[in-house]
């Protein structure tokens, strides 16, 4: 099974990825079903809060990503992308 990773971070623009992850998960419009899953990943294990105020408990950390099983990494916008951390 391949994994589609969604990197989540504080102040993530949660609306940017909504349609994409819903379709990737449901595969409603795929003519051929794919053997993939969507997982959230973070730089540490703390829950994050999106710009829309939603709290997300991540599935894994960046260190736990299995590159050979990864199909895609989604990097949404966020207010803190330019911060040093």
Could you explain how this protein is built, in words?
It contains 1 helix and 6 strands; from the N terminus they run E-H-E-E-E-E-E. The protein has a single domain (2-74), classed as 3-Layer(aba) Sandwich (Rossmann fold). It has a 4-stranded parallel β-sheet with strand order 5-2-1-6. It has a two-stranded antiparallel sheet with strand order 3-4. 14% of the residues are buried. The mean pLDDT is 90. The chain is mostly beta strands and 85 residues long. The longest helix is centred in the first third of the chain and has 9 residues, at 18-26.
Could you provide a short overview of the structure?
This protein has 85 residues and is mostly beta strands.
Beta strands, count: 6
What's the CATH architecture name? 3-Layer(aba) Sandwich
First-residue to last-residue Cα separation: 32 Å
Structural class of the helices, strands and pairings? mainly beta
Give the strand line-up of the largest sheet. 5-2-1-6
List low-confidence stretches.
none
Number of domain units: 1
Q: So how many helices?
A: 1
Amount of beta strand? 25-35%
Radius of gyration, taken over Cα atoms and rounded to an integer in Å: 13 Å
Order of helices and strands: EHEEEEE
**How many strands, which pairing sense, and closed or not: the largest β-sheet?**
4 strands, parallel
* CATH first level: Alpha Beta
Kindly state the percentage of residues in helix. 10-25%
Return the CATH topology: Rossmann fold
Q: How is the topology of this model organized?
A:
Elements: E1 2-7, H1 18-26, E2 36-42, E3 48-49, E4 55-56, E5 60-61, E6 70-74
């Amino acid at each position: 099974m391949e994994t589609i990773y969604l990197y989540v971070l504080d102040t993530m623009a949660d609306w940017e990825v909504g349609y994409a992850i819903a379709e990737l998960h449901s595969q409603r419009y795929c003519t051929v079903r794919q053997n993939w899953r969507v997982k959230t990943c973070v730089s540490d294990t703390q829950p994050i809060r999106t710009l829309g105020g939603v709290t997300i408990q991540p599935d894994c950390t960046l260190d736990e990503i299995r590159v050979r099983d990864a199909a895609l990494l989604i990097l949404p916008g966020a207010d803190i992308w330019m911060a040093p951390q």
